[in-house]
Structures are given as C-alpha cells and as structure tokens.
Specification:
The complex is a heterodimer of chains A (253) and B (437).
Chain A (H helix, E strand, L loop, with lengths): L7 E6 L5 H7 L4 H8 L1 E5 L12 E5 L5 H13 L2 E5 L1 H5 L11 H9 L23 E3 L6 H13 L10 H7 L24 H4 L14 H4 L2 H6 L4 H7 L5 H9 L1
Parallel strand pairs in A: 1-2, 1-3, 3-4, 4-5
Chain B lengths: L4 E5 L9 E8 L2 E9 L6 H4 L8 H6 L6 H15 L6 H31 L5 H7 L1 H22 L8 E2 L2 E2 L5 H13 L1 H14 L11 E6 L10 E4 L3 E3 L4 H5 L19 E2 L2 H8 L5 H9 L12 H26 L17 E9 L2 E9 L5 E7 L1 H20 L5 H14 L18
Parallel strand pairs in B: 6-9
Antiparallel strand pairs in B: 1-2, 2-3, 4-5, 6-7, 7-8, 10-11, 11-12
The chains are: A alpha/beta (253), B alpha+beta (437).
Chain lengths: 253, 437
C-alpha cells in the first residue's frame, strides 16, 4: 500500500486500564507492519501529534459520565469507522460490576463524605450504548492477532471474522480438563470464543471477558451444561464479573 | 525572553491517563502554577465488595493494564496476609521473576517509547521508526524480551492468569526457564546500546534539583521489590501494616486524585526513590550503568527517574538470571497441571505491598468468615507522586521564567511530569472539583 493511501487511524481512551492500547505496543516488531497499513494520526498515550482528521477510530474504556459521552459523540462524527476495543468498551467490562451494586453505597465506599463532588453515571456503559459501533474487538485484554485481523479487514473493506460460539468449543480442542470437573465454576459455556480458551489453558477458569454469545439460551455449550445439570441462565446469573451490562440489555429487549 | 507566560497543556500526551498543566505569569509574577489531574472514577474499592477471595486479584488486576502483574501480586499478598496463607520459596522466586518482567516491560516502554522522543527532538516514537530505526528496533527487542518473560512465568503479558492465592495454577518447566535465561543473557548488548544512546543524550536532561523525601520498600537481603518494610529517606523504616501513617491521603482543589504526604509537604515514589534508598543492593552491571550518568544517592533531580528506570531494567535482567540459576540448580519442584492450593477461607484483614514500576503500591482487604470481601483500600504510586510533581513545578517555574522562551518552558514542564511516568488512569482515589477557568 502506498503511504498516502493508508487510512488515517486514531486511538481514544475512556474509563479503563489502557491495557488494550498496551496490546498495540505489545505487537512488538509487528507495530511496524501496522504502520504500513494505517497512518497513525492521534494516540495520546504515545504521541504528541494530534489530528481530528481520521478515518478509523479505536475506542478503549467504558463511558461513565456525560462529558465522556459528548467526547465519544464527537469522535463518532469525525470517524467513518468506529471500532470498540476491549471488554470495557464492548460490554462495560469489569467497570460494570457496579451496575448491580447500590450506587449510593458504591460512592460512599470509595469517597465517603466527598461523594457529591464528581459526575459519574450510576452505570458503566460500553461504547455501543452511546453511539453506533461498527466493529468490536473483544477481550480483557484484546488478543493482538485478532486486533490485527480486524484492522486488516477494515483496511481491505472486508467483514472481520468474529466467532459466535462458546469458549467450550476451543477449550475442548485444547484438551483442557473441564473447570467443572475440577470443582470450579466457569462461564465458558456461554462466553464468546476467539481467545483460544487462553485462561483455562493456563490453569484458570473462563471469567467471561469476551461477553455473552449472541444467543446463550440456544447456542450455549449443551454437552457441558447437561453433564453438570446447569442451564445457560444459571451460569450467567451465578457469575457476573463481566455480564452485568449485557444482562440488563437482554432483559430490556 | 518574556516575563509573561501562558502555558496550558490540556490532556498531556505520552503519559497513561489524563492530566493538565496550567502555568500563568504576568511581569514575572506567577498567577497560577498547577498540575491538574482529571480522570473518570472507576470505584475499584466498591467493585470488590461481596466478591469471593478467589476473584479479587482478577478484579484489581484491571486497575492498570501496565502494572497488572504488580496489582495482582499486591492483591494476592493482601489476601494471603488476611488468611495466613504461606507460599513456597519456589513460588516466591517465580513471583519475583514476574515482577521483574513487568518492571522491565513498563520501564522500557517509558524510557524508549515515551521519554526518548523528547531527547531526540521528536514528538513521538512514530517518526523515529524512520529516522532512528536501529535504535527503535533495539527498544522493541528489549520490550519483547520483557513480555516473553511475563508469558513464560505468568501465562500472559497483561492481566496474568497463573498467579493465584497460595501460589501458581501452573509453572514454567526447566527448559522454558533455561531458554529465558539465554535470552536474558543475550540482551546485554541491547541494554548497553540503549545506555550508550542515553549517555550521549544526557546533556539534554534538564538540570533541576529539589530536595524531597523518597519512599520505597527496603529489604535486608535484596533490592526491595517483592517485599520488605517501608523506607523513608527522612524517617527510616516502618512496618507495611502501618502504611496509613506514611501515606496520609488528603484532597487538593485542582485534582480529582487524592494526594499523599509523610514527613514533608510531599514525597516521591518510583525508580529514583528505590535507587536512592537501596542503591547498594543494585546488581553490578546496574551500578556500572548508573555510574555512566553519575547517578547515586542522594540524587535530587526528578528527571533522573528515567535514567533510574534504565538502571533498574539492567538490575532486573541480572537479578532474573540469578533467580533462574537458583531455581535450576535446586531443580524445579513439580506441581499438578491445574494446581489449586487447599485453602480454607477465614475472616480477617490483610495488607500487601509491592514495588511496581511507578513506586510503592498498597492493597488492604478485609474478609468475612466465608471469604467475601467486606472492605478494601488501594493506594497506588502515581497518586503518591502528584504532590511532588506540584512542588517541583512551584520551585522550577520561577527559576526558568524569563530565561527560556514559552515553548521551551512548556516542554520542560511536560518532560518533568513525564519523568514521573505517571499512570493516571490507574489512580484509584478521586475527588472531583470544578476547575475555575
């Protein structure tokens, strides 16, 4: 691709740990490949240069107040394509745990008497709750290869391939011992795959960071649910680290 | 040179999170001189309430992507302290490797990607990929090495999965450790190349000094990172359990983050604080590199924090080689593939402190009998540095006003904040104030 034909790309962060933008740095030498296919015009974490003239915007973090919502609206207006990266931006992420807590208590626990001083919504929201989002790169943090795949797809004008089957499918292929077999609770049966079951491979459980599959009641991993006498809804309700915003959105439908 | 200046840096770049610099002066009189912190609160100390002891480190790791290993370790230490859980010597060594990996990753990112452009008169690392491609490739190799080390030890580069209360779900095998050791040994040329590059650029590091208090961990047997007591360069050592007597959080009108102070109006945490407090325990090559920059205690130039980070990268490489040798000499004790230590949760309070790239970090949890968290407090290093940044600015601005053009003053102030490598997004304690325009 000729340098002048590269689409202009910009990164923006909201409430989050900036671990997804870190995965861009963690591309290591592949960063140079990335710079061959997009022209980076704004990325506050690593660049002083800034331009509002961009084609593709990458959004990290949850939206938690009206100031940030306004900023996101401005970005949406500027960008032809908007891509949410990471669980905070795609499903509210770990921030959404507080969506099911009493907000008065949430504020009091952290700020005591000084809680009235700042503006924060009762609930943390993903980008798509505020603006139209074109593509999502799931995960906490995002998978670098999947990120590159989405960028390449956007640049080539193709639809990226994002799985809509549960993590159990990948976990079985990896021949892991099922977490339920080990007396642990796991949300792999209802969580979107695409991570190659990376947490279970390391001896942990699936925590649900890629969010629910589109239709958990019909597409959940039946074999595992049957074997352990569970329903998809029970799995979702029992363990809600990442699902709070998605659950509420499902109930509203 | 004008005695009137108007510096307004909104959303300082090349730092993690959001902060502003505002300095106004008329006829040499300073009207305003502020480091302002503005970040949306994330309420971590509430997110963990009612959650199970097995989940806390997973949640608090998300305070910061860059120091996720450090937050995980501080979290595990707090839980282990609360429930009297012991870990093996082997696991302790592996955790130290994990911490070294993260310090290296974060320091290389800061020194090579964020701070270096200022010394090469560039606005970012992006143009340097063309003008200084060999140097950038060297930095990338070191960054990759640090991440490889995280992968080998913790199973991931960000938000580690293998670290759990009581030890590890899975540990690396001897072959993986041997390969890692070889890679660390092979990195010496790259480390020296970066040190030489910075040595040549050292005259561009601003010459500014302000005496302050330095706070870090200290340990009698080693350069304190994973454990030890709290050490103040002013007041000596304090037990980690007494951390609140050191941090003394308070609020200021221009910041959404809480500030801290101990013996003076502010203190500094981070690589320079550690180096000032524990210089003697640095590895031989680390001391050699420090010597190239005349960096030894007490160093009162905050800009030298970036060089202290470089020195610590060298220390981490050398110390990690030593730790791996010890592990291999003794032979790795095998554990099950999905290790889950047999732990009976119990009620209690526990405090964990570790040194993370930006300084000393505290996690403090209280659990009920079932192992559900009832209360939490996290004090992160960047918040401990805000007050010191403000004090530095107040001393420096009158020294340079009228002597430098406004754009240079602005750059000097930006470089000052960057030298602290602040990670504002991971600040856990905020209060919100409306800034007067």
């Amino acid at each position: 691709m000729k340098p002048e034909e590269r689409p202009k790309a910009a990164f923006f962060d909201f409430a989050g740990c900036e671990g997804d933008q870190l995965q861009v740095a963690n591309l290591e030498e592949k960063i140079l490949d990335l710079l061959n296919i997009v022209e980076l015009v704004s990325f506050r974490e690593v660049m002083t240069e800034h331009s509002d003239d961009y084609d593709v915007a990458f959004i990290e973090g949850s939206i938690t107040n009206s100031h940030d919502a306004e900023r996101l609206n401005g970005i949406r207006e500027n960008a032809d394509v908007l891509v949410a990266i990471g669980a905070c931006a795609t499903i509210g992420g770990i921030n959404s745990i507080r969506n099911v807590q009493d907000f008065e208590k949430v504020q009091e626990r952290v700020y005591g008497d000084e809680r009235e001083h700042y503006e924060a919504w009762e609930k943390a929201k993903p980008a798509k709750a505020v603006v139209e989002v074109d593509y999502e790169v799931h995960g906490c943090p995002i998978d670098r290869e999947e990120f590159l795949h989405v960028v390449q797809s956007v640049v080539m004008g193709r639809e990226p391939n994002i799985p809509d089957h549960p993590v159990c499918v990948e976990c079985k292929l990896n021949e892991n011992v099922c977490a339920f077999e080990r007396d642990e609770f796991c949300v792999g049966p209802v969580t979107r795959a695409g991570c190659d079951s990376c947490c279970v491979n390391e001896g942990a459980i699936c925590w649900g960071c890629r969010g629910l599959i589109d239709n958990p009641n019909e597409e959940a991993h039946e074999e595992v649910l049957e074997e352990y006498g569970l329903t998809a809804e029970e799995v979702i309700k029992k363990f809600d680290l990442y699902f709070a915003w998605q659950q509420e959105a499902r109930e509203d439908e | 040179m004008s005695d009137d200046i108007d510096v307004n840096v909104e959303y300082l770049t090349r730092v993690e999170g959001h902060g502003n610099i505002e300095v106004n002066a008329k006829d040499g009189e300073i009207e305003k001189c502020e480091w302002q912190v503005i970040e949306a609160p994330r309420f971590f100390e509430s997110l963990v309430v009612d959650r199970d002891w097995k989940e806390l480190h997973h949640v608090t790791s998300r305070i910061c992507g860059i120091c996720s290993i450090g937050h995980t370790l501080a979290s595990l230490k707090a839980t282990e302290d609360a429930m009297d859980i012991d870990i093996s010597e082997q696991d302790k060594k592996l955790r130290k490797l994990a911490l070294h990996a993260e310090n290296m990753q974060s320091h290389v990112l800061h020194v090579g990607y964020l701070a270096l452009p200022d010394l090469l008169d560039s606005k970012s690392v992006v143009p340097l990929t063309e003008t200084h491609s060999e140097e950038v490739k060297t930095v990338i190799r070191l960054h990759k090495l640090a991440n490889t080390m995280s992968d080998v030890v913790t199973g991931r580069t960000t938000h580690p999965q293998r670290l759990i209360p009581g030890g590890f779900t899975k540990i690396p095998n001897e072959r993986e450790l041997e390969e890692l050791k070889e890679k660390l040994e092979d990195s010496v040329d790259d480390l020296k190349a970066v040190a030489d590059l910075l040595e040549n650029l050292a005259p561009k590091i601003p010459d500014f000094r302000r005496e302050t208090e330095y706070i870090s961990l200290t340990h009698e047997d080693e350069y304190g990172l994973y454990g030890g007591d709290i050490c103040s360069s002013d007041t000596g050592t304090t037990d980690v359990d007494e951390y609140l007597d050191i941090t003394n959080e308070y609020t200021v009108p221009q910041s959404t983050a809480k500030y801290t102070k101990n013996n003076r109006e502010s203190y500094m945490a981070g690589a320079l604080a550690r180096l000032n407090n524990n210089y003697q325990q640095l590895s031989p090559m680390a001391k050699e590199i420090a010597g190239k920059f005349d960096l030894d205690p007490m160093e009162y130039n905050p800009y030298m924090n970036t060089i202290a980070q470089l020195v610590e990268v060298v220390h981490s490489v050398e110390d990690s080689i030593g730790i791996i040798e010890e592990l291999l000499d003794k032979g790795l004790e095998k554990q099950g593939e999905y290790n889950s230590p047999d732990i009976e949760p119990k009620a209690g309070r526990g405090i964990g402190a570790v040194e993370v790239p930006r300084g000393i970090l505290f996690h403090d949890y209280t659990y009920d009998e079932e192992g559900k968290c009832t209360e939490a407090n996290c004090i992160i290093p960047t918040n401990q540095n805000h007050g010191n940044i403000q004090q530095d600015m107040e001393k420096m601005v009158p020294e340079i006003i009228g002597k430098k053009p406004e754009d240079e003053i602005e750059l000097t102030l930006e470089m000052l904040v960057r030298a602290y490598d602040p990670c504002i997004s991971c600040s856990t304690h905020y209060v919100d104030i409306d800034f007067v325009e």
